[in-house]
Amino acid sequence: MPESKRLHIHARTRFVRPVFGVAAASLALIGVATAALAGDDPSTSDLASRIEPLAKAHKGKVAVALKNLQTGETYALDADAPMPTASLVKFPVMIEAYRQAAEGKVDLASTVTLTKKDKVPGSGVLTAHFSDGATFPLLDAVHLMITFSDNTATNLVLDAIGIGSTAETMEKLGCPNTKIHSKVFRRDTSVFPERSKVYGLGSTTAAEMVKLFEELHARRLVDEKASEAMWNHLLTCDDKAKFPRFLPPGTKIAFKTGSVDASRTCAGVIETKGGPVALCVLTDQNEDKSWSDDNAGNLLCAKIAREVYDHFSAKPAGPTTGPSAAKPEPPAAPASR
Asked: Could you say which DSSP state residue 21 is in?
């Protein structure tokens, strides 16, 4: 899959370093969720009735996974199918950057220098607005990579941490399908050339994305301090065309998105009255390859997010299982677009 003319428009309990082995249990919960659709759980049936007609009507491949991080309720649709990430893979890249910083392998305060050869097209601000020779902390590059999905900043981060290291860490976390394959717009740097041909910049599954966001919400990725910093980066993601689009104004959401011609992706944690919900929507082979907020893939992400929000906001909050269980204000009318 080509890396499109633009990659992505605009776009708590300690990860005891050995948390690398804890992934299986939560992934199992997500993995069996599809089977539960055939059962008698009215909550799961309601989620299926809300999400599946949207997925079926979409002209392209769709994968969905979610988990209410307060009640444990799950839903999955083709959640274990490997799919392209587009810029969504920058979230795992950030995890690896903070892991290496915690181990002293990189210094997020160290200075990086922008050169002409570093600049690549697509989303972000560095290529168009920063002069050759500009210097700034590696931490700022990480922030630009998440907030503006900056492609040039992503490549600077990859120069510091190595392209293959993210995939190695994801394997240890129980997310073997989650990989960044190369630098952005630099297919020649691919460390997974065969996967690059199939998935483009990166690959993942909806289940693995939900797993990572569950670990982050629980502050178990790297350590509590790093998790909090990563969470704050994700709260600033500026792509409003996907999950945030139809959510009530003021809804708290920590998320990352991705866009290439035939794929639109989004994953994150949405605060609802019924608890925080980790949600991932992946699309591929989309018939609509347009570059506007009304792209069908964008709209699908936005509509599923609203259905999930409404489903859980209509339910009383269950027992708390995570540190961010504060309930938001009652929902207002959907934002008009």
From this structure: G
